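2.7 Reproducibility. Because tokenized structures are sensitive to small changes in the input, we list the exact sequence used for Citrate lyase subunit gamma (Acyl carrier protein), including any N-terminal residues retained from the expression construct. No trimming or masking was applied before prediction.
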Amino acid sequence: MLAENKKATCGREKNSDCVVEVELTNDRINIDINSKIKNLFGKQMEKAVRDVLEEFDVKGANVTVRDFGALDFVIKARTKTALRQALKEVQ
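Resulting structure tokens (single pass, no recycling of outputs):
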């Protein structure tokens, strides 16, 4: 169990990029996608985040993605980096 929530952010507010904020919790996984194209690609964006969380065996996290036209591999990379930073704080 985490003593307190650990938070980390990765990314830039530039075209073809995204900002991912990960907050580790003892709770369940919540993913919030903020994107102009959420109606079209929201499910794929959420799947990209969930794939990374599963890869790291994370059971509780609040993840916010602010999308500026990022492709899936960018979302995954930003999520991995933010998650590694948050996990580093826990250790």
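Residues 6-90 form a domain with the Ribosomal Protein S5; domain 2 fold (CATH 3.30.230.10).
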